[in-house]
Amino acid sequence: MAGRPQKATVDYFSHDADALHASDTLRIIDGQYGNDGYALWFKLLERISSTDNLIFDTRNSIKWRLFLTDVHLPEERVIKILDDLASLDAIDSVLWQSRIIWVQKLVDRVADVFRSRTGGKIPEKPQNTIPAPDNSILTPDNAIST
């Protein structure tokens, strides 16, 4: 008897409440962009957490436009903040060049959720990807090596 498919998302991620010990990334983004940077970072983590295999492919124009709607910021500002997050290694800089967002620290923080599920394979960073013909999210299983 087949069960329901395993979830490839998480319903939560931890958020440290001690602002004095916030990550360097958060302190820099908050200091440079104020609430825009702070809100974008956490809305990005929320979006990634609810995306299969924790990969946010911003090349999908509908998903990208929905994200822009959620963050209430102009696209140019969002891209600038994401560029800075990539320069700080908060998001993978190589994948961001292809407009794919991967946050290894988030994956590491929620790895136990995936381990506890039956067949709990932890999401893996896509490698050597090029745009998918159907503009779908690339996973390690459907990534195309170059």
Could you characterize the architecture of this molecule?
- This protein is mainly alpha-helical.
- The protein has helices spanning 24-33, 35-49, 61-71, 75-87, 93-97, 104-116; strands spanning 56-57, 100-101.
- It has a two-stranded antiparallel sheet with strand order 1-2.
- Helix 1 packs across helix 2 (35-49).
- It is globular, with a radius of gyration of 16 Å.
How do the strands line up in the largest sheet?
1-2
Number of strands: 2
Number of helices: 6
Radius of gyration based on Cα positions? 16 Å
- Estimate percent helicity: 40-55%
Beta-strand fraction estimate: under 5%
N-end to C-end Cα span: 39 Å
In sequence order, what are the helices and strands, one letter per element? HHEHHHEH
The helix/strand class is mainly alpha
- Global shape: globular
Spans of at least 5 consecutive residues whose pLDDT stays below 50 are 137-146
Mean pLDDT: 80
Largest sheet data? 2 strands, antiparallel
Outline of this structure?
By secondary structure, this protein is mostly helical. Helix content is 46%, strand content 3%. It has six helices and two strands.
